[in-house]
Every structure is written in C-alpha cells, then in structure tokens.
Design brief:
45% of the residues lie in helices and 16% in strands. Helix 3 runs parallel beside helix 7. The relative contact order is 0.14. By secondary structure, the protein is an alpha/beta fold. The strands form 3 sheets. The protein has a 5-stranded parallel β-sheet with strand order 4-3-5-6-7, with helices on both faces. A 5-stranded parallel β-sheet has the order 9-8-10-11-12, sandwiched between helices. The chain starts with 10 loop residues before the first helix and ends in a 17-residue tail after the last helix. Bound molecules: 2-deoxy-2-amino glucitol-6-phosphate. GO terms for molecular function: glutamine-fructose-6-phosphate transaminase (isomerizing) activity.
Length: 367
C-alpha cells in the first residue's frame, strides 16, 4: 500500500510521532507488562556460556549498539565489543568459536553490516539480528532475528527504527541478566516497569515539544554545534549530532563530556552552541561540571534534563528541554526524541530537504 504522510509535512515528523505506538508494538511481542517479565524466543546458546558478545552496525543503528553495550555490561555483567561494520569486516578480528555476534539494521540490507555478519558466521559465531524490514538479506543469514515493529521508515534519517531497536536491546539485556543470575526477578520487574512506561513518557515528550521548535531558532544559524553526554547520554549525543548533520548540514560533533578537555573544548566560544544531554543519573554531577566549563568559555548551552536537573542548572542555559523523570536505564530511549525534534526543526528553519537530504540514501547497499 502507498504510505502517506498523514497530516504531517514530512515523513520524518510522522515517524517521530509514531514512536509511542511502535515502541509499544515492538515490546508487545516479548514483554508482559502485567507480570513485568520478558519472554524471548528460544535462543541457540546459553547466556551463561558467553564470555563476551559482539555487536556490529552502521550509523544510527551503531549508536543503538553503543547504548546496548552499557546495558549488557550493567545488567548482565557481560562485556560487549561494539564496532561499525565497515571496520569490523576488514580488521580480521579474532572470534572464539561459539560466541554471539549481533547485527542491528533498520533495512537489513546495509552492505557493510551484511558483510560483517557473514564474516562472523564464517568464524563460528551464533548470528542474531535486530531488523525492521520483515524480509531482508541479513534476516535470511541469521540464526535468530528480532523484528522491530517500527513499520516502514521512509525518512532517510532514522528515528522510530532507532527507538524500537533500543527497547528490543534493553529487553535482551535484561533477559541475559536474568539468565546469567546477575539480576533477580525483583530487579527484572523494576526494570520492566521502567520500560513499560516508555510509550507513555514518549507521548508526553511529543505533546510538549513546542519549546524545542523555539530552541531551534536559537541555534539554526550556527556553523558548528557540539553535543555532549556521559554514559548512555554519550551515544545519544552522537546520535543528536548525526541527525543534525544529516538534516541541516550544520557541522556537529558528539563527544563524551569527559573528553572535552582532551581537545574539543578548544572549539568553544559564543558562536558554538553546546547541547548537553544530562538526565539525573550517576553521571549527572560530572556532566554538570563539564557544562559549567563550556559556559565559562561563553558557549550557549541547551540543556536536556529532567525537573530535578533543570532546577539545579537550568537557569544557566539559554534553553532547557524538560524530559520526564525516569529510571536512568530507559533515559537514552526517551532522550533520543528531543534530539530528533531539534534536528528536524533546525532543518525546517534552514529549508533543507528533511526526508531526502542531499548525498544520502535510505539504505547503503554498496560500500
Ligand atoms: C541514520 O539517520 C542514517 N540515515 C544512517 O546512519 C543509518 O542508520 C545507517 O545507514 C544504517 O542503516 P541500517 O540501520 O538500515 O543498517
């Protein structure tokens, strides 16, 4: 069937606002909100036998892998090697027979990710993938597939596929944690409760996003924009910067806030806005002090945090985006939305082609 934009000017906005529904849809296949448990399909290995896992992807899907790394390490005590597919496929990485390699892709057709998958397969790994398109080359080559239920994603910039990948990975990490005896059922229930709130919290963010449109006006004339965060806020910063580059052609960088002093702070002056991703989590104070450092160099800060964070630091920023107070575990899923919206509104102000940015293709089927 022909897919329309509904009442929206762009597919991207339609896809952004679909997120509460499609996240819920994705969760419904393996998540029981009543019993607060996760039931995954049978997997061809035992989580307890794995000394580490490998996750490979490109672009936004790679940032989902990065976030998953923090989750698996935290709740499943499992080390995770993440890599972008174009590097992984050529660097002859030693893989121990019987390991697990997972591949994340909206399309299931990305050439480098598919080649990386084949490399892992030839090297005796169990192959799992997280794919949005029902029938795909990567799906056919995999031992098991988690299908995200984002529905067709038309905008070149990935939005809803990303957040659906994230909830899927969150559930896999929790299940791995339970199987490995790292978390008990009480902790599983607590994390599941946090996940089950995600669709409703995402809907709240979407209802109150007029503010983000106004903030876009404060930054759309910049030539360079920096995004910083720590923990899972770091990949969110990378994703924010990628989204902005793709859509608005403004040069943007995502950095781990703790790396600022190692170089990028040299860029900072009053012409370089800094987007600070800082949910109330164990990293908050550290990120807050990095925020103060960039403000001391006259950066205009846009501060993404929750009520507690904004109360503490919001007055120093040129603008704040208040997000719901949630368990830090699910924060990166929700903080993805304001960075998508900010990039969207900046692009609209610049008049660029939101759904079909120059030089980009929806799926990169040649390397
Ligand atoms: C994201 O906005 C991009 N257009 C791009 O980075 C994309 O995520 C990447 O090409 C991976 O695509 P895939 O998920 O279909 O493999």
């Amino acid at each position: 069937a022909m897919i329309g934009k509904g009442n929206h000017r762009h597919f991207m906005m339609k896809e952004i606002v679909e997120q509460p529904a499609v996240i819920g849809e994705t969760l419904s296949s393996f998540f029981n909100p009543r019993s607060r448990t996760i039931t995954l399909p049978d997997l061809p290995f035992d989580w307890k036998d794995l000394p580490k896992i490998t996750i490979v992807a490109c672009g936004t899907s790679f940032y989902a892998a990065m976030i998953a790394k923090y989750w698996f390490e935290k709740v499943a005590d499992l080390s995770v090697e993440v890599d972008i597919a174009s590097e992984f496929r050529y660097r002859n990485m030693p893989l121990r027979e019987g390991g697990l390699a997972m591949f994340i892709s909206q399309s299931g057709e990305t050439a480098d990710t598919l080649a990386a998958l084949k490399y892992a397969k030839e090297n005796g790994q169990h192959i799992g993938s997280i794919i949005n398109v029902e029938e795909s080359s990567m799906g056919r080559e995999s031992d098991f597939v988690f299908h995200t239920q984002a529905g067709p994603e038309i905008g070149v910039a990935s939005t809803k596929a990303f957040t659906c990948q994230l909830v899927t990975l969150a559930c896999i990490a929790i299940d791995a944690g339970v199987q490995r005896g790292v978390i008990d059922h009480e902790e599983e229930a607590r994390l599941c409760a946090a996940i089950s709130e995600v669709p409703a919290r995402a809907a709240e963010i979407l209802e109150s996003h007029v503010n983000i449109k106004n903030l876009a006006e404060k930054i759309f004339e910049a030539n360079d924009i920096l995004y910083i965060g720590r923990g899972t806020g770091y990949p969110v910063a990378l994703e924010g910067a990628l989204k902005l580059k793709e859509l608005s052609y403004i040069h943007a960088e995502g950095y781990a806030a703790g790396e600022l002093k190692h170089g990028p702070i040299a860029l900072i002056d009053d012409t370089v806005p800094v987007i600070v991703v800082a949910p109330s989590d164990p990293y908050f104070e550290k990120t807050a002090s990095n925020m103060q450092e960039v403000m001391a160099r006259k950066a205009r800060v846009i501060f993404l945090s929750d009520a507690a964070g904004i109360e503490q630091l919001g007055e120093h920023a040129v603008g704040s985006i208040e997000l719901p107070s949630v368990d830090p575990f699910v924060a990166p899923i929700l903080y993805a939305l304001p960075v998508q919206l900010l990039a969207y509104y900046v692009a609209v102000l610049k008049g660029t082609d939101v759904d079909q940015p120059r030089n980009l293709a929806k799926s990169v089927t040649v390397e």
